[in-house]
Write a structure and sequence with these properties.
This protein is mainly α and 275 residues long. 72% of the residues lie in helices and 0% in strands.
Length: 275
């Protein structure tokens, strides 16, 4: 039996290693291409080591493309604001649905579940018309405010707080904490695993979003990086060397966010509510 288990583990590791290699190959090729001239990329030959290694692609997007730093700032600013607002409002809504008793609570929860079933494509035109009537087209608030809550993560936080130990809240209530104080001083600090998972997914969703900026933004100075990358593609020629270099810069913040929150995310596996 032990021998069969060892063989099974080895086969599993082989499959996982092969999957990791297959997943990493496109990323490694993009990283390699970011240091190649355009002629070498479009030659059709697949080589992971550049024959003509150059930093000119990065110099061009940061120096000659004057709007690239602005696109980077726009993406960081919008993604950070959306992530922070989601963490606050989704957590508060989830806690209210899990712990507080108020009239219409069940109906509100059903409405949130119904929102999960509506595809984003259905709401594109209504969102556009609402933002147009508010005068928020081509503005930061037009990008941030409609994205500052998410029904999926309200539901996730509700499920997390339902399983949260009530003893901690009862002890805090005996010590004289209000519901708001209890939420921010006791509940939220112990919800780091759920908040970390939410932060990763919300940041990635906002950072990689292409369709919403395409609909709302028209001023090149307000473009986010996904829209900015699209400007390197022309009708007759696409500058893949610049696209690959910009893609590497585009990928870096997501990797940093994931590495920072990953340790909290893993703690969620063994979370018991105690500290």
């Amino acid at each position: 039996m032990k021998r069969k288990i060892n063989i099974g583990k080895k086969l599993l590791y082989v499959v996982l290693i092969l999957y990791a290699i297959i997943t990493l190959i496109p990323f490694l090729w993009a990283l390699s291409s970011s240091f190649k001239p355009l002629e070498e990329i479009v030659s059709g030959k697949i080589n992971f080591i550049p024959k003509h290694f150059t930093f000119d692609n990065y110099k061009t997007i940061f120096v000659k493309q004057e709007l690239f730093p602005r696109w980077l700032f726009n993406s960081v600013f919008i993604a950070v604001c959306v992530t922070i607002l989601n963490l606050i409002f989704n957590s508060m809504a989830g806690y209210a649905l899990a712990r507080l008793k108020f009239r219409g609570k069940r109906t509100l929860f059903i409405v949130i579940l119904a929102v999960l079933m509506i595809p984003m494509q259905v709401t594109m035109i209504p969102n556009y018309l609402i933002l147009k009537s508010l005068g928020w087209l081509n503005t930061y608030q037009g990008m941030i405010v409609p994205s500052m809550i998410n029904a999926t993560f309200i539901f996730m936080m509700r499920q997390f707080f339902i399983n949260f130990p009530k003893e901690l809240e009862e002890a805090a209530e005996i010590d004289g904490l209000s519901k708001i104080g209890m939420f921010f001083r006791i509940v939220l600090p112990l919800a780091k695993p759920a908040l970390a998972a939410q932060a990763i997914f919300v940041f990635m969703g906002s950072w990689n979003d292409f369709m919403r900026p395409l609909i709302i933004l028209s001023d090149p100075e307000l473009f986010t990086l996904p829209l900015g990358l699209n400007t390197f593609k022309g009708q007759y020629i696409s500058y893949w060397n610049y696209i690959m270099a910009a893609s590497m810069v585009f990928t870096l913040p997501v990797l940093v966010i994931y590495m920072f929150f990953n340790r909290f995310f893993i703690k969620g596996i063994s979370f018991t509510g105690g500290k």
